[in-house]
Design brief:
Layout: E1 5-10, H1 18-31, E2 35-39, H2 43-47, E3 51-54, H3 81-93, E4 98-103, H4 105-118, E5 122-126, H5 142-163, E6 166-171, H6 178-186, E7 191-193, H7 201-213, E8 219-224, H8 230-241, E9 245-249, H9 261-279, E10 285-290, E11 293-298, H10 299-302, H11 310-320
Parallel strand pairs: 1-2, 1-4, 4-5, 5-10, 6-8, 6-9, 7-8
Antiparallel strand pairs: 2-3, 10-11
Helix pairs in contact: 1-9, 5-6, 6-11, 7-8
The structure holds 6-O-phosphono-beta-D-fructofuranose.
């Protein structure tokens, strides 16, 4: 049966470029004579039947805005059978033939389980500052987040060099070191600490002491939040090296702001691809670019731990510092 009406929602942590993705889904679906229901607050909106019909004009003026006009959130209730049954009722009652889920790894895990259990065709659009979706090159929002973090690190370098200090800068990434690795390399930082790799603080401190003896005066060490707190690490560095340390926690600043051209371009092209895949009767997969080509990967693959060549990155960061 041809599709008549689809739903679109954003779930999990917001990411810059989600709005551009919503805009692309809505306008490309309308171009293909489909109706689009916007689901408010992600899975909460399905559970509580918070929906609104989106027309062409309803997504005007949002292409350059961070966050998500559909709102988003984490929804523990969706893990329960009662929550899922209610969500399915909303879908049936509102004659939604397919769902586009804009989010990251956790959102796709939920869509994979729900879609298969209730036979609801779901297509994912990867959007997360963590770049944690397996099988695709980049999530929407990651490029914006690393540029935001990089701008902060450039500023920190000015004061670190002038006052001859060691800075420990904490970036986001509960389970993933992707932001930390990228900004540590692009920011010319001296070291990086990530959840994927065992922390060897003694080696880091040894390098600092050796460098200091040769006249090096400042360091920036980037730590992903999932690998430890900047405060604890800085305290230990001071104890082990006797050098003065300062900490900066960039936090949710990295999640906001105007999406970069890369984040927007990705969002707009993947929005179109997601609608096309639903129209073609596909389900249970996420769209994305892989090696420069637009493609789709099964949710079962997309939700696996993304492989990052962290040893190579860490090595290069050290060699170039
Ligand atoms: O969106 C991903 C992310 O920013 C992670 O890097 C971070 O650990 C988490 O979300 C924080 O989530 P919340 O804003 O719900 O505390």
């Amino acid at each position: 049966m041809p599709l008549k009406r689809i739903g679109v929602m954003t779930t999990g942590g917001d990411a810059p470029g989600m709005n551009a993705a919503i805009r692309a889904v809505v306008r490309f679906a309308i171009y293909n004579k489909l109706e689009v229901m916007g689901v408010i607050r992600g899975w909460w909106g399905l559970i509580n039947e918070e929906l609104k019909l989106l027309d062409h004009r309803s997504v005007s003026g949002i292409i350059n805005a961070g966050g998500t006009v559909l709102k988003t959130g984490r929804c523990p209730q969706f893990a329960t059978k009662e929550g899922q049954d209610r969500a399915f009722n909303t879908i049936k009652k509102n004659a939604i033939d397919g769902l586009i889920v804009i989010g990251g790894n956790g959102s796709f895990t939920a869509a994979h389980i729900f879609g298969n259990k209730y036979n609801v065709p779901c297509i994912g659009i990867p959007a997360s500052i963590d770049n944690d979706v397996n099988g695709i090159d980049m999530t929407i929002g990651w490029d914006t987040a690393i540029n935001t973090a990089l701008a902060a690190i450039d500023n920190i370098r000015d004061t670190a060099t002038s006052m001859e200090r060691v800075f420990v800068v904490e970036v986001m990434g509960r389970d993933s070191g992707s932001i930390a690795l990228s900004v540590a390399l692009a920011g010319g930082c001296e070291d990086v600490i990530i959840p994927e790799r065992k922390l060897d603080l003694e080696a880091i401190c040894n390098d600092i002491v050796q460098g200091n003896m040769k006249g090096k005066i400042s360091w920036i060490i980037v730590v992903a939040e999932g690998a430890g707190s900047a405060a604890d690490i800085a305290k230990k560095i001071t104890e082990m090296t006797s050098l003065e340390t300062r900490t900066v926690v960039l936090g949710h600043i990295q999640r906001g702001g105007r999406p970069t051209a890369i984040s927007r371009d990705l969002a707009l092209r993947l929005g179109q691809e997601a609608v096309n895949r639903l129209i073609n009767g596909e389900k249970d997969k996420a769209v994305g670019f892989c090696c420069g080509k637009v493609t789709a990967v099964d949710f079962a693959t997309a939700i696996q731990k993304k492989e990052i060549k962290f040893e190579e990155w860490c090595h290069l960061i050290k060699v170039l510092s």
